[in-house]
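Journal club side-thread
Mid-discussion, someone asked how the predicted structure for our own chain would compare to the paper's figures. Pasting it here so we can look after the session.
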Amino acid sequence: MAGNNTYRISIDGSWSLEDFYELPHVFAQVYAFHCAFGVDVEARDPERLSHAFASYPWRGGYSAVNFYNVLSSQIPRRFRPKVKSVQYGSAGWYDLALWVAAATAAGKVVKIVVDSAGSVNKLYNEIHEGLHHRRLLRIEEERKHLELTKEQLEFVENSSQQFARALGFGNLTELNNFTGNPLATIKILLSYYRRVRTLVDYTKKGKASFPDEEPERRL
């Protein structure tokens, strides 16, 4: 694997102080998610990483935050994002030293959602409503997935497949292996999408752009 490279997030327009927190914070979460599926990235604690996926998230927001914190903690130190330079102006940038392949994977998903003209978000809403209708959003115990009816199981599995295809996410089998739980799988995909959607909003507003191709040789 190549060493750290530079990934430039271009920024423009008028930014608030909150923007300077939100964009790096959300991008770091999406980046950490992609790092978890890097075939050449060895987590320092594979059991803890697997546990994070297998136990996600049964009690709402705080466990979701913990989930992404664990993913971030399992990125090898040489691939943890470091700020090389920042310029705010017309135009400005964030230059980050990180694993470029994972960053560009995030950029590709942002582009897919932007280019979808709302169809990915529509699918998200349909799946979320389907989970709500089936009372699957508030399940709080890991073992509950064993009690899913045949119809519920088919819904969550089909939803995961549809949503993964819509996002261009090619690691669904690995995600299923991590979770061992089809309900956790779709919840993780929806959570991941909500973070991608924040980056999409920055793109649509002309406030940021996320490269979707590596500037140097591919890994």
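Post-session note: Residues 5-209 form one domain.
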